[in-house]
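Title: Prediction job returns without error message
Component: structure pipeline
Severity: low
Priority: P3
Assignee: unassigned

Description:
Job completed but the reporter wants confirmation the result is attached to the right record. Sequence as submitted:
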Amino acid sequence: MEKRMIGGIFLLLSCVMGIILAAAMQIGWGIAGFDPTGTFETILLVCTALVLVFSLLALLGGISAFSGKSYGLALMGGIFGIFTIGYALLGSVFGLIGLILILLSKDEFEGHGPAPVPAYGAPPPGYPPQAPPPGYPPQQQAPPPGYPPQQQAPPPAQPPMQAPPPPQPPMAPGAEPAAEPPIEAEVPAEATEEPTAEEPEEPPKEE
């Protein structure tokens, strides 16, 4: 069980003790055979009304502690629960215990717990930006207002695709495929030139 709910139980007990005290102040004197009059009666009525008001606030604080919606109302109920007094000061003791438990369980109320961690993406306003984990693709952010748009370079042109060769006609059954013409090897030009006969040298003439 959560601490705020235990604190709400003590606030409800403080409320019960206050109601018992208020009933005793109004009924007990008559049972004892004493009829208060004058100023004493006025003081007794005021004290009874105050105890009932404090008990009602302690009741509201206990209900708020059980629901966990309003931390302020539960805290106020714990404070006023101390003044319920109750039988043998039990109302004040229960109210004090409930107040301490509510103070210790502030995070259990709505709007007072830890802030949720947002998923990766656009953070909420005022939230510090977080770096993505390793291997996470980088996110492109929009440029600020008034910033000139960035032009991206066009992709390089791809070479045109060659047309596929025309399909060959189907061969008749039993026919042999046509022999491919032999590929002539290229002979270098130096090898094709015929060697020229060397002219004999003329002997020197004698004078």
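Comment from assignee: result matches the submitted record. The radius of gyration is 52 Å.
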